[in-house]
Amino acid sequence: MSEHGHTPQEIAKRIGAPGGSGVLKDAVYGAIDGAVTTFAIVAGVAGAGLSPFVIVALGMANVLADGFSMAAANYSGTKAELDNMRRLRVVEERHIQKYPEGERLEVREILSKKGLTGAVLDDATAAITQNRENWIALMMEGEYGLAAVDPRPERAAATTFLAFLAAGIVPLLPFLLGLPNAFAVSIVMTMVTFFAIGALKSIWSLTPWWRSAGETLLIGGAAAAIAYSVGTLFHY
């Protein structure tokens, strides 16, 4: 579990510039989907008995096209989230200007939910509403449940694409390298990738590494089994 310092300087620096949620969700999302979808294509095509050339062609198309598609979708979704935050900020600015007393009552209610009462509640409400930026920030968090750190669409998209590319290329490597028993090697390498993603994910979780790794392996293995089973229906 990560630790941080508690000197006045360390606290001021950390609280003054929060890092937000980071790129963990985007990286895990992209990596798992990259490995799953690419191996699904490999398994499906192999199950149909098609040539390694077809596997490589379709697999590379998936890695590049689907990776870009996922990155673009994540960019659009994150940007929509950011646009909504900006819209709500404008709403709050307008409400503070038109209905200041009502907004002060909302601040008071938010603070009371945090345990403040009596004179402390009165003073805190007065102090926060004297600063427009602090006022809006509290309303964004307390009324809408939005974090103080804005999401970053470009970073989310880039992380998703790179993670998808890194994990998605793994099932194709045995075919690209012309290894014997390429499909069997691809299965092993892909399962190891699922296991590794799950184990690494546990660093940011209270879940034991082996449970996180096993869960991810189970999800990826199930998707691969489905794809291979469908592919065998078209074997000629």
If you had to describe this structure to a student in words, what would you say it looks like?
Helix 2 (24-47) runs parallel beside helix 7 (153-168). By secondary structure, the chain is an all-alpha fold. It starts with 7 loop residues before the first helix and ends with a helix. It is elongated. Helix content is 78%, strand content 0%. The model has no long low-confidence stretch (mean pLDDT 88).
Structural features:
236 residues; elongated; mainly alpha
The helical percent reads: over 70%
Largest sheet: none
Average pLDDT taken over every residue: 88
Strand content range: under 5%
The unreliable regions are none
Which value, in Å, is the CA radius of gyration?
25 Å
Helix-strand pattern, N to C? HHHHHHHHHH
Count of individual beta strands: 0
The number of helical runs is: 10
What's the helix and strand layout?
Blueprint: H1 8-16, H2 24-47, H3 52-98, H4 100-113, H5 118-129, H6 132-144, H7 153-168, H8 173-176, H9 182-201, H10 209-232
Helix pairs in contact: 2-3, 2-7, 2-9, 2-10, 3-4, 3-6, 3-7, 4-5, 9-10
Short account of what is shown:
With 236 residues, the protein is mostly helical.
